[in-house]
Amino acid sequence: MKTANGQLGFLSHSNTSASQDEKLRVLAVAAHPDDIEFMMAGTFLLLGDAGAQLHYLTLSNGDLGSTRYDREKTAFIRRYEAKQAAALASAQFHESFCTDLNIDYDQKTIAKLSAVVRQVDPTIVLIPSLSDYMEDHMQTARVALTAVFAKGIPSYQSDPPQPSVSRPVALYHALPHGLLDGLKQRVVPDFCVDISSVIERKVSMLKCHESQGEWLDATQNISSYVQGLYDFATEIGSLYGNCRFAEGWIRHNPLGYSPKDFDPLRTILQPFIRGVSR
Ligand SMILES: [Zn+2]
Asked: Which residues, other chains included, contact 208 with Cβ-Cβ below 8 Å and sequence gap of 6+?
């Protein structure tokens, strides 16, 4: 398998070669359609370029994201937009199973996500910050942590049932919008990924969410949807990455998920890693 620097060392614990089990798979799990684009898409695209199979999932269908359409029509439009964005990244699209402001840390949601996790059997899972301005984002992170934790427990039953899988997995938290948590405290990344080479592709993915430019302008005083993406990536790059455009990441504690030194995102994207603080 090719990587960004032509080397692959992180799966050397495996005894098999060139099997499906060794395939690098990346699952991005966010709350709402367009969150992956704002928070994660640059890194997601670079991992795809490095040979990873990409999987795209937002827990919520985004059904409250319109001042013009009812919930059903809004969800329909946003599903189409998200599928277009996933296709641009050559990622497999997975169906949402929650609605806006209704992402709950409960057994039903965890079991549904666990089925996707077991089916994908990812090496890397990209998730929102545990500290964020928005509750749906934080709940998504918590649901994902438990769904991934449960993937290797044979007695745990996913919905629909899928067999347990036991490969090591690493989870990485994105940075929140505005880089602050709900109490206005800064959320500082462990490291950044320089996404300057893929920023236009990230913007193209965001532009698929055509309905949201109008919605954010009307409800959250975000004057330009696309400019907001550039500004966010620029701020992370200048504050933490010492590069033009960046995404910031915090690696989740590997306890219960992988060996301590299993850090595939940093290994695979080594040429793009900037501003390491931890
Ligand atoms: Zn969101």
From this structure: 37, 81, 82, 84, 85, 88
pLDDT digits 0-9 by tens, 117-148: 999 999 999 999 999 999 999 999 999 999 99
pLDDT in tens, 98-107: 999 999 999 9
Alpha carbon of 193 to ligand 1 centroid (Å) = 21
Residue 8 CA, ligand 1 centroid: distance in Å: 33
Residue 167 lies in a domain: yes
Question: By the 8 A CB rule, do 215 and 66 touch?
Answer: yes
Which domain range does residue 116 map to? 22-274
> How far, in Å, are 19, 183, 200, 266, 268 from residue 263 at the CA level?
21, 30, 27, 6, 9
Give the Å distance between the CA of 226 and the centre of ligand 1.
15
Considering only residues 2 and 137, tell me which one the structure prediction assigns the higher pLDDT: 137
How many whole angstroms from 7 Cα to the centroid of ligand 1? 35
**CATH number of the domain residue 234 falls in:** 3.40.50.10320
CB 147 within 8 Å of CB 191: no
For residue 136, the CA-to-ligand 1 centroid distance in Å is: 7
Residues, CB-to-ion distance under 5 Å, ligand 1 = 31-32, 35
Q: How far is the centre of ligand 1, averaged over its atoms, from the C-alpha of 137 (Å)? A: 6
Residue 55 maps to a domain: yes
Say what the pLDDT of residue 21 is.
Answer: 64
Report CA(260)–ligand 1 centroid distance (Å): 30
Residue 188 in domain: yes
